[in-house]
Every structure is written in C-alpha cells, then in structure tokens.
Fold:
Amino acid sequence: MSCCIEEKTAVAAPVTGRRRFVQLAALASGVSLLSVQLPQAHAAGATEALLLSCMDFRLMDEIDRYMHSRGLRDQYDHVVLAGASLGAVTDKYPAWSKTFWEHLDIAIQLHAIKKVIVLDHRDCGAYKVILGEAHAKTPESETAAHAEQLGKLRRMIKEKYPKLGVETLLMSLDGKVQAVETATS
Ligand SMILES: [Zn+2]
Structure:
C-alpha cells in the first residue's frame, strides 16, 4: 500500500515527487544491477567445436571431464543423439539425421565452429537396438562397428563442409577415449 501513497505524493508535488521517483527507480533497478554482476554465459560468438555424443546417462560426467581435460569446457556446442554417429546416419530414424544436420548448420552459422567431435561409446544400447547385439561380441568387432559408422558420418560431413575438421572417437565405460581410424572413402 505504501507504494500507492508515494505515487500519489509524486503526482501532487512534482519536485519532491520526481526526486522520490528517482530514488524508487534506483531501488527497483538495484535488482537488475545485482543480476548483471552475477556470472553469465559467454556472449554469443565463435567457439571451437560441435560435440555429437550418445544420450547414455552413464557417461555424462565422463564426457564433461573429457572435454574439460582438452580445455574445451564451455567451448563447444553439444548435440545428443542415441548412438552418436549411428544416430546421425541410420535410416531407421531419419528424423535424427535431419536434426543433426540442422544443428550442424546452426552451429556453423551462429558460432563458426571449426570442427565436429563425434564421440561414440562402448556398450552402446542404441548400437545394439539398431545393429544387433552381435557387433559387440568382441572388443575388436565392436571397434570395427563404430569405425564403420564414424567413417560414414565423417565422409558425409567432409562432403558437405570440406573445411570442417572431424574427430572420430570411442569412449569406454571408464571414460577413456581412443581415436578411431576410419576408411577415407
Ligand atoms: Zn549409447
């Protein structure tokens, strides 16, 4: 109620009212002044990379730690698709592929990213659902299955955006990451 009385006073007595109004405005703006001083996200601009990873909840901390260890914390865009590379190339879920390419386009337009980091992982449920359990019979066959999908996506990215770098990686459940060599054609 006191606010309404003060407003009425301001209208009735212009000089002191204006001063009071300025004081009130300063008090009110104190809230936004404080919020300006809080930590904020970086201003929009260029950033290093777009990361494509799987959605698997077991590896979220490991992914964050890995990107941090490379000095990329808060320096990358992140697209999450079940199966990572496989999610982006599979015919089984065409909307996922569309989503990936649209996000890559936006990441290039908004943040001028220089590379795509594709991070698959072992014991991936999406790989089992889409390709079947047999691919993971041995660590070697599992690696080969990932190399095939990672390679497919690498070639598609390079075809569309020849200047973009592409990293093809495979994470173990303990968070260790290995580079996966892929065929070039
Ligand atoms: Zn997965």
